[in-house]
Amino acid sequence: MTASNLQSSTGAVMVVGGGIAAIQASLDLADSGYYVYLVEKSAAIGGVMSQLDKTFPTNDCSMCILSPKLVEAGRHANIELITLAEVQELKGQVGDFTVKLREKARYVDLSKCIACGVCAEKCPKKVDDEFNRGLNKRKAAYVKYPQAVPLKYAIDKDNCIFFQKGKCRACEKFCPAGAIDFEQKDRERQIKVGAVILAAGFKPYDPVNYAQYAYAKLPNVVTALEFERILSASGPWMGHLVRPGDEKEPKKVAWLQCVGSRDINHCDHPYCSSVCCMYAIKEAVIAKEHSHGDLDTAIFFMDMRTFGKDFERTYVNAAKSGVRFVRSRVHSITETPETDLRIEYADDAGMLIAENFDLVVLSQGLEMNPETAEMCQRLGVDLAPSQFVATGSFDPVATSREGVFVCGALAGPKDIPISVVEASAAACAASAKLASSRGSLVQTREIPAQRPVLGDTPRVGVFVCSCGINIAGVVDVKAVMEYAATLPNVAYVENNLFTCSQDTQDKMAKVIAEKGLNRIVVAACSPRTHEPLFQETLQAAGLNKYLFDMANIRNQDSWVHAEEPEKATEKAKDQVRMAVAKASLLEPLNEVQLSVNPTAMVIGGGLAGMNAALNLASQGFATHLVERDNALGGNARLLRITAKGEEVQPYLAELAEKVKTDPLITTHLGATVETVEGFVGNFKTALAKDGGQEMIEHGAVVIATGAGEYKPDEYLYGQDPRIMTHLELDSALLSGELDPAKVDNAVFIQCVGSREPERPYCSKVCCTHTVETALHLKKHNPESRVIVLYRDMRTFGEREILYKEARAAGVLFVRYDVERKARVAKEGDDLFVYVWDHVLGRELKLPADLVGLASAIVSHRDQALAQMFKIPQDDDGWFLEAHVKLRPVDFATDGVFMAGLAHYPKPIEEAVAQAQAAVSRAVTVLSKPEITLPGTVAVIDQNKCVGCGVCWAVCAYSAISQDDKGLAVVNEALCKGCGTCVASCRSGAPNLRGFSNQDVMAQITTMLQG
Amino acid sequence: MSSEFEPKILAICCQWCSYAAADLAGTMRLQYPANIRIVRVPCTGRIDILHLLKPFEEGVDGVFVSGCLLDDCHYVNGNYKCTRRVAYAKRLLEQLGVEPERLEMYYNSSAMGPQFAQTCIDFTQRIKELGPLFSSDAACDAA
Description:
With 1010 residues, chain A is an alpha/beta fold. Chain A has 25 helices and 52 strands.
């Protein structure tokens, strides 16, 4: 079976897991025509990312960037969230699977729970809060975390007093919504799907086995994830940096790296966990920010593995900001009588040193969760020796069972962006199998025709919610309702126990029709969670959904002024008055529909570009593949093997052949992009080829233009044929020009051109490539002397096993400092490499008949292409994605995506995954006949515009341009509705629909009119 | 005594971070003074200079803007633009005889419920100490 799709299949996919990878895979599939069952083991989705304080390297707030995705997944018409559930069995085959699920009882009726928290407040049973890693307590009736999706409480049966002792039921008695249901039973479900995506994540390693670190005994020795919760503003100490033992602010904090990684003594984990170096740096930097005094931070490490995009800069900046980096594996932690923690370690020179700290963070590794491993075995999915799910480099999201895909840390330790890339890639791979059933099971909502209201006198309906007692317990809702009735334009008022309940929604739709209401204000909770729900009701009643506003009288009133009911009631009145004033001015907004040309373009015919084109074609989209060279293949034509030992050339030949024979792919060789017009759904790109020009219309584009190899100007490169870069060396080995059996003395020099001031980044692949090549030489000539000169060995993830093999095979590794680089010298006909050895304290003279230079990967710095597609580049020339963490293959410009080395140096499996991910993202555009743009966009009043150009200069999305009269005009397809142009105009020409100058001003001017 | 004075304060919050932080403060049941009325905008970059000055004309005693953390703006850099606008508006206020401390820019991410509540507490306290708008000698002199 190849990537070609099946004739008949079930148009639904099950995604197992609830972390960021599972959420991204679900969203991609649901947005491209499939029904998704998202199956999560705990009571809410969010995974480990929801527990993090910040994310590296940008130090974005983790919850801020995750939360919109959670809400989107929770509200999506084609994603069914199934929480507290586990997969028992998988029968059938790709296209036609039946999954048996076991769903645990929640004992809370999801349709009734309003997440008021009274059950938890009244519950007498306290248990360790696993979300806060046991640093504080929660109740047996609980919500996983404050921003949880679904935002519904659950009863933890194992700890519930009623279930354990037969008495209590306090939650049931006090629940204002009657949502507690002790009669619920665990149940089994059979679900039919066409494919399955496993995204169940990892388990943070429990360092209890490291007896000499005394984690179980010493309260001030914490794990990294515990430290995330300590730093988090919503954690047990509300973001105050304290140590758990005595809640005192620490003055000195140490991080110990590789706890549960690169270790086969305490645990069977020969691999590197890939993320710990970066998270330790992040935690140290953030901890310094949190502490008000001078916090001393030290990271004890073996190799600093900052190999990703902008990681090296983060490392360098952290060192500059005073984080100490100590290269040593710490022997033990002991407690002093003053409850300080004494760390003993050996320095570079072998001297034993002891230092006291008051808090120690163990940088725990990632491991396979044994329960997930069991599930994989039940499903017939093979595991790698590391125990993570086994995958291949050329099909990085496929498992051993056809139709079952994997993404995220379940397939090996990795960070968030790579997990997100793999999630989209898995969605692409599943979608490719099921393309014939696309759209067969999706649900669409029928929207009745809109009643025209423009020009009518506003008739505002105000619905004041009691939210059980959440609002009514503090705010006098009756008084608020009566007050609302006196406000201008208000035609109807009502108080509801729960305005969001289904019966109130039905009634609201009826009232809108009966009373002829044309604006609605709901005074209740937050628009962030509930606006879409109420807007749906407006639409069902034939009202434009933008004729709506909310007064947030719960989260921003009753809950924060619980002790001041009178003031809270006054505030609620003010809030309602301000909302009514704004609502009275609201106008129906048009959501522009853009037709989509279901044709794709891929720029770059290397490994990533070819994969992108083939995946687009397998999903049924005609694709133009543009390559400036006269042959396909790119840099991969010079590569020998992958980190997993697969041969690259046969694969590449097969790939090129498939591209050539695919009827949906048109290949343009020797072609370059000349001009680009248009926007998402409708691009017009002119190609220069064969001395002429060809115009191509397409709906989306994938940029896969690759990168080049740095040509060194040091180490005598170019002056002797025995001194070669990596690609030259691979080529020579491939062609047989270099016989590995005849190499007696090989020296590899790492970081040639990388991690230098002019290129302050790590090229990511070179350490592994050197280790592979060194092993190859050793295999063909076991007596040879192979020496690797390195700064930090960055064999991340399961590549660490290769590093271990190389050492076992006798490859010697000598570390050097950048201040004291090696020298290559030619003495007569002989080559020698001189290098300072730290351990011996003297210079070594190494004879060499081969010098391998691990030279950097460099950007093509294609400014012209960047400008044509309006895509930014970073300081190093890499294309800059829309969001480093959560939109790794998207650009801020819609309809433009990227894959491969153009983004940053990366190994083959990541380039392939990115290609699949870019396709998945592109298909969310291409699979729809038209796309709907939000109505809240900027508009220019050209009568006021003088064409000064300020607005198009400040627009971060290039959404404003100059028309033929020289005046500003907004392209609604590009506008994101931030309103920056409105605030910057000197003549008041732009306005923002939904948040117009008048709307905002109305709220300001009515604020004091109470 | 100034403890009798209950200032009216306007807070303008961006919907991605600070408005969410205000919601979170509620979810966490953190208590802060009931003097603040929040207006939601998509981005602090959308806030016009007039939105910062008009409230004082209306008699509001203090105004603060709360946006995403710097470099975390959902719309690239709107919070930087607003930061400059707030600084400019403070200078204008000073010339008009309004204490510039009555206007402030804060940054609260959506996970910073406690910090948002603290912002409200601190700012309310600040305005209480300043007293009602146009109450100080400096203001009288300038007026």
